[in-house]
Fold this sequence. Notes:
Elements: H1 5-11, H2 16-22, H3 29-37, H4 44-54, E1 70-72, E2 75-77, E3 80-82, E4 88-90, E5 99-103, E6 116-122, E7 134-139, E8 143-153, E9 156-160, E10 169-172, E11 177-184
Antiparallel strand pairs: 1-4, 2-3, 5-6, 6-11, 7-8, 7-11, 8-9, 9-10
Amino acid sequence: MINRIRDVRRARRMTLDDVARRCDPPTTAQTIGRLETGTRTLSLDWLNRIAAALEVDSSALVSTETTAELAVVALLGADGAHALSRPETAVPPIPNDQMVAMRVTGSLGEYRSGDTLWLRRIGADGIGSALNRDVLVPRPAGRFVFGRLIARDGERIQILPPGAGSRQQVVSNPPWLAVAETLIRAL
């Protein structure tokens, strides 16, 4: 079986050590490197552990005829577009049971009408990792608050909605929140 661990890891801009530390239980960068290169047998257990660490479906880590990927043909920087020095691929996000989506129907802040946001649901224990990120938070009666998570005070979180002049919103003890991870925008 040919694996795509290295491709996915690089597309996620993670090091071997990043993946090793995010594995449950944690492992070493050397072990991840050996699994990537095939010098160590990639069992189903390892495949699932690494997929969870990379936050992708395990099927994204094995090569098949239907593997979804795009060739990266150029890099864009402040000085313009340039050719790559070595081949790269871009791995599109793969939906899973922790992902939710939100469509933007009216331009607000940096978001434009027609945008779609992919967000990853996290529990109350992961709120600290979402500070200074855009989040969607459920409220009673089917309502939501969306904006930048600016503070957490015990069971209360403070959200600053996008757009000039927006007032801070406070939500007490949300059952979950979803962190914006991917913006899909048609040009």
